[in-house]
Amino acid sequence: SVYFRHNSTGLGNVSVSLVPPSKVVEFEVSPQSTLETKESKSFNCRIEYEKTDRAKKTALCNFDPSKICYQEQTQSHVSWLCS
Q: Which sequence ranges are marked TM in the entry (predicted)?
């Protein structure tokens, strides 16, 4: 499973991050070569868990600090299960 976190604000700021699952996942490191062409692999994925939290608050406007602007924040958590 991979957890995906997305934050956005009404001011156009967006941050995206992958959040590691609670269990540590290890991968073997294999030497890579550009001399051979390898088949690409497809994964069959589905959403295992999805949650979205939204909040709206007031803040001083960036373009004019004497005014009040609304700021909307969205945070999404998605867990994908791939095989």
A: none
Q: How does pLDDT run across 6-61, given as a tens digit for each residue?
A: 555 555 555 555 555 554 445 455 555 555 556 666 777 788 888 888 888 888 88
Residues spanned by the domain of 7: 2-22+44-82
pTM of structure: 0.39
Length of the chain: 83
- Residue 33 domain-assigned (yes or no): no
Identify whether 30 is part of a domain. no
CA distance 18 to 22: 13
Split into its structural domains, the chain has a count of 1
